[in-house]
Amino acid sequence: CEVRAKFVEEFHTESKMIPVVMPKLQLLVIVKALLAIPAVVLGCFGFCWGKGLYGQVQGRPYVVTPGLLQPALSGVVAARPTDATMSEPLMLSPPMLRSG
Questions:
Q1: DSSP code of 66?
Q2: pLDDT of residue 40
Q3: CA separation, residue 65 to residues 16, 62, 68, 81, 82 (Å)
Q4: What is the rounded distance in angstroms from the CA atom of residue 48 to the CA atom of residue 55?
């Protein structure tokens, strides 16, 4: 049975560092916990307010205004040909996929 002097010295060095590092680690954990509390509270408020707003919106009568909300919701407005002069499609054939 042999004593590994290198490991014993490293363990001794690390055991001397624990009293220096431990208060800093405790402070870090406490600060992180204190900063997390407002985030949790704001998340709960957001959930409660969002749930209440969702309930209000679901309780309202459903009214459809044609053409008023579609561009805002879709983001892309599809152009519909209203002119009788457009007799051929915009895309003549679908793009060919390369196999490679």
A1: T
A2: 96
A3: 74, 10, 6, 22, 21
A4: 11
Q: Please check whether residue 77 is in contact with residue 71, taking contact to mean a CB–CB distance below 8 angstroms.
A: yes
pLDDT of residue 9: 93
User: In order along the chain (100 residues), what is the average pLDDT of each group of 10 residues?
Assistant: 90 91 95 96 96 88 62 54 60 63
Q: What is the DSSP letter of 90?
A: S
Alpha helices per DSSP H over the chain: 5-59, 70-74
Residue tagged 């457009």 (tokens):
86
Cα gap 3→12, rounded to integer Å? 14
Cα dihedral 29/34/37/42 (nearest 10): -130
Three-state SS at 96? coil
